[in-house]
Amino acid sequence: MTIDWSWISDHTDDLTALTVSHLQAALTAVLLGLLISLPLAVVAHRIRPLRGFLLGLSNVLFTIPSIAIFVLLLPVSGLTRTTTVIGLTIYTLVVLLRNTVEGLDSVPTKTKEAAQAMGTRPLRTLLTVEFPLALPVIMAGVRIATVMSISLVSVATYIGDGGLGQLFTDGFQRNFPTPVIAGVALTLLLAVVADALLVAVQYVLTPWTRRRA
Amino acid sequence: MYELLTNLGTWLTSGEQWSGPDGIAHRLAEHLQYSLLATLIAAAIGLPLGLLIGHTGRGAFLAINLASFGRALPTVGLVVLVFLASGLSMWPVYVALVALAVPAIVTNTYAGMTAVDPDVRDAARGQGMRGHQVLLQVELPLALPLIMTGLRLALIQVVATATIAAYVSFGGLGRYVFDGLAQRDLVQVLGGAVLVAVVAIALDLALSALQRALFRHRTA
Question: Which of A43, A150, B31, B150 could bond to B172 as cystine, CB 3.0-4.6 Å?
């Protein structure tokens, strides 16, 4: 299987556009996933009976094939970017919700009690004590969700979107491996770069964890 | 919405839908065959690798980064790539599914091994146990819960992704999803998706029951 390098140099503009579109879909999904799962995680953390229900529900969503999620959204949002983003967001919820709940669980009770004893109100305790301390575990979830979304965008190629995934369909239909190889390589590259950036963000946001390393 | 659900009910319960080579029973058997065989191959590769890395402490970097690599690998691209290289065969499907499952198994097995208390390991060595005895009789049983978590995670992902076999014109429950997509037949797509989800959940429950059984044996 050989790579046709001239095809790649002829299509750098297309490849760049697809990469940007690919990244946009994945990042929007992770941001939306965070917006939904952070408050839900607080609910699951505080109200025990809801915890099993919410985590169980997100696990069930994970078992539905991604292609099916995209197709099932078609009557709702059509052949659009919205469908791609909603589908991906549903998948990020599994990881983000579980990790955020575990992160909040990992905050020592004594730390919370100390904050309360100093007269810090519950919401403030949540924002300035619990979330920062839970951040390493939450960020682990964000990293997994980001890498997973970047890989999953290509599935949306079946509904006409899918960023770099279009290269797979293209190569498959023309029996031409070069675009497929380029698509796989660019997806892996995006994932590695995004993951490294998130590690850097975590390093900046959690200065107290650096001593251990 | 209501009409869709009634149609889905009819689709899932009609007798003719279940029989014949295009029937649910046959597609279900195919789907199970792909998923279970792929997970078994992945376990045969991933378990020894994870145990070895955990036992020797060598290659930890590989074990940690393999997970990230596995999640980043686009399954559709991999299937198409192997398809273009090998032609029409089951290879693309199995390569993609195994590539998906191995990282989850290796990383969780390794995580389970590192969670074993070093004192326990030292005590086993102090009693004169050999390396392989420590591995099989001490570390493996203690790492078992996390190893099982890895296997369950891998199996769920494989079952959901085995849908892709239909993309390169093989069977399995993905047939309904892809054929339904081509024919704009939403009931068929939904039926296929529901069946895949039910299979994944059922297998996960079965493995979790097996895990509890293994645990009882260990703690008794």
Answer: B31
